[in-house]
């Protein structure tokens, strides 16, 4: 492709709203342009990069027997639901299994983040992968292995983390990430913070003492209470009341811990909850600031407790009357919740549920969503070798190609521009003709261009009549792996100058030397 005819100009400055390096560089290098409503247009360079990324993944999938399909957008059904409908008609024998299908689609995102560039775009191209098998436990590692190998090939760190009871996702750690991960460096356990778990210590080895009421004037916070009684906050109970459409729920957690809002929303079945009003507290027998799960009207309130309270003994709780608390509260002797629910916000250093090492917390962007196998439904079955019916199981992966593109730029750039990994670039070679108006330069550059193309290399040819400084600047900004330069002296001697974008000195090569240098690129298939 000739740059002189390429749609998409390089820019000196990024847009004012661009904060992330990927956003700035992809716009400045002419890969994308922001349009209205948080959407992005992919210019030829950007579309070509997306296409090459998608083709690279597709070739790996095809090697596993993957077949490409296209599913229409449907307002009343997800891609998985449409795939299940098709599977019920098209897959009916064990001889067909496993089935691996994939498609490219566009997904609308209801809540976009305008200052996150492609990570927060309102519409994103994605690659859907579907795997139909005859049993839940059938091997599904080949797809995961492909995705991990691609991450290694592109030097893109991926962390697989739980995002639901049955789903997981591959995340790219980044300071601006819109999710927080809890991760164990020792054993590899990882989960989105709101789905992460920990293990709580055993309660102290001490006898359970009788409950006693103690005056605590003005101690309507955990901090004030702990300071007044001279005890650590973990020896108190934090009791908070939430209401949903007038129905009150009492939440009990260890006093030094915070409630995770997402976990709470799952426990309440909605995120439309609010702190209970005074009249609602009075109706169930509670007093704000001095609340206790003991003595409530259990017919009117649901009591849920976090497992953290099991790690304490002889705890301090409110007394449900102003300026008083209860010492030596113990479970299950003094109260038993209606349900035990994981509610605690995971903190750095909390023990890993797998190995007990301290968890780390850091932000990340999700790139790939994996839904573990589930049965397709009672009407979607296949016949085994004996003619017996069995349910089909479906696992799926969704690769966010827009976020993948942005993550590659975040991971591979320097102060001059993008530094594409060698199999993730829109072109293999960036050919620069200096003094292109000079006949020998134009002839030599054109000969190199045609020769490389005939060998299957993808070449971006800068044939513009602009200064060498502009060409070198743009080449660094665009970030193609191998830059070849033809100038007057080189043209006269039948040579080219080569320089790799990811580092190294400039070297002068004849045709044989050029062939050897090209061999360092991954040959297109």
* Number of extended strands: 28
What percentage of residues falls in helices of 4 or more residues? 10-25%
The CATH architecture designation of the largest domain is 2-Layer Sandwich
* CATH homologous superfamily placement of the largest domain: Bira Bifunctional Protein, Domain 2
Radius of gyration: 31 Å
> What oligomerization state is this entry in?
single chain
- Top CATH class of the largest domain: Alpha Beta
Q: Largest sheet, described in full?
A: 9 strands, mixed
The total of helices stands at 12
- The class by helix and strand makeup works out as alpha+beta
| Count of structural domains | 3
Q: N- to C-terminal separation?
A: 19 Å
* Portion in strands: 25-35%
Describe the structure.
By secondary structure, the protein is an alpha+beta fold. The chain folds into 3 domains: 67-197 and 361-411, BirA Bifunctional Protein, domain 2 (2-Layer Sandwich), CATH 3.30.930; 212-340, Alpha-Beta Complex (YbaK protein), CATH 3.90.960; 429-518, Anticodon-binding domain (Rossmann fold, 3-Layer(aba) Sandwich), CATH 3.40.50.800. It contains 12 helices and 28 strands. It has helices spanning 21-28, 44-63, 79-90, 141-153, 222-229, 261-268, 278-284, 401-411, 439-454, 468-478, 488-493, 511-518, and strands at 32-34, 40-42, 67-68, 99-108, 123-133, 159-162, 167-173, 179-183, 190-192, 212-215, 237-244, 247-254, 274-275, 301-305, 315-318, 324-329, 339-340, 360-375, 381-383, 389-391, 393-400, 413-414, 417-418, 429-433, 459-462, 482-486, 496-500, 507-509. The strands form 7 sheets. Strands 3, 4, 5, 6, 7, 8, 9, 18 and 21 form a 9-stranded mixed sheet that branches. Strands 13-11-12-14-17 form a 5-stranded mixed sheet, with helices on one face. A hairpin with a 5-residue loop joins strand 15 (315-318) and strand 16 (324-329). It is elongated and about 100 Å long. The model has no long low-confidence stretch (mean pLDDT 94).
């Amino acid at each position: 492709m000739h740059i002189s005819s390429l749609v998409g100009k390089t820019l000196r400055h990024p847009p004012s709203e661009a904060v992330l390096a990927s956003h700035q560089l992809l716009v400045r290098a002419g890969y994308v342009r922001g349009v209205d409503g948080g959407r992005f247009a992919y210019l030829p360079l950007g579309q070509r990069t997306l296409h090459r990324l998608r083709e690279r993944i597709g070739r790996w999938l095809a090697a596993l027997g993957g077949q490409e399909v296209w599913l229409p957008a449907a307002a009343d059904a997800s891609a998985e639901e449409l795939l299940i409908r098709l599977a019920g008609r098209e897959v009916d024998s064990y001889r067909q299994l496993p089935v691996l299908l994939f498609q490219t689609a566009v997904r609308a995102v209801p809540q976009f983040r305008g200052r996150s560039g492609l990570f927060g775009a309102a519409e994103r191209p994605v690659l859907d992968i579907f795997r139909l098998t005859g049993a839940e436990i059938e091997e599904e590692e080949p797809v995961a292995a492909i995705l991990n190998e691609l991450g290694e090939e592109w030097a893109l760190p991926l962390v697989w983390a739980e995002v639901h009871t049955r789903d997981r996702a591959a995340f790219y750690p980044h300071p601006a990430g819109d999710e927080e991960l809890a991760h164990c460096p020792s054993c590899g356990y990882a989960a989105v913070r709101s789905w992460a778990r920990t293990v709580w210590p055993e309660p102290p080895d001490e006898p359970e003492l009788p409950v006693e009421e103690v005056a605590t004037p003005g101690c309507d916070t955990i901090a004030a209470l702990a300071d007044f009684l001279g005890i650590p906050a973990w020896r108190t109970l934090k009791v908070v009341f939430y209401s949903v459409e007038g129905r009150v729920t009492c939440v009990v957690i260890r006093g030094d811990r915070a409630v995770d809002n997402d976990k709470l929303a799952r426990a309440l079945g909605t995120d439309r909850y609010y702190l209970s009003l005074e009249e609602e507290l009075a109706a169930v027998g509670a007093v704000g600031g001095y609340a206790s799960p003991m003595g409530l009207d259990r017919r009117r309130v649901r009591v849920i407790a976090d497992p953290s309270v099991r790690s304490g003994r002889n705890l301090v709780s409110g007394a449900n009357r102003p300026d008083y608390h209860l010492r030596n509260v113990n479970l299950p002797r003094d109260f038993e919740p209606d349900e035990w629910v994981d509610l605690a916000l995971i903190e750095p250093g909390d023990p890993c549920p797998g190995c007990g090492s301290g968890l780390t917390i850091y932000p990340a962007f999700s790139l790939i969503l994996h839904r573990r196998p589930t049965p397709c439904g009672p009407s979607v079955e296949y016949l085994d070798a004996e003619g017996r019916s069995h349910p089909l199981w479906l696992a799926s992966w969704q690769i966010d190609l827009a976020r993948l593109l942005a993550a590659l730029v975040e991971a591979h750039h320097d102060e001059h521009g993008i530094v594409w990994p060698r199999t993730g670039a829109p072109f293999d070679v960036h050919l620069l003709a200096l003094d292109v108006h000079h006949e020998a330069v134009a002839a030599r550059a054109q000969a190199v261009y045609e020769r490389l193309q005939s060998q299957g290399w993808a070449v971006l040819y800068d044939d513009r009549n602009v200064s060498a400084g502009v060409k070198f600047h743009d080449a660094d900004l665009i970030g193609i792996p191998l830059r070849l330069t033809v100038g007057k002296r080189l043209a006269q001697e039948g040579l080219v100058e080569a320089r790799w974008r990811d580092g190294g000195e400039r070297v002068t090569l004849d045709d044989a030397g050029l062939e050897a240098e090209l061999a360092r690129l991954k040959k297109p298939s």
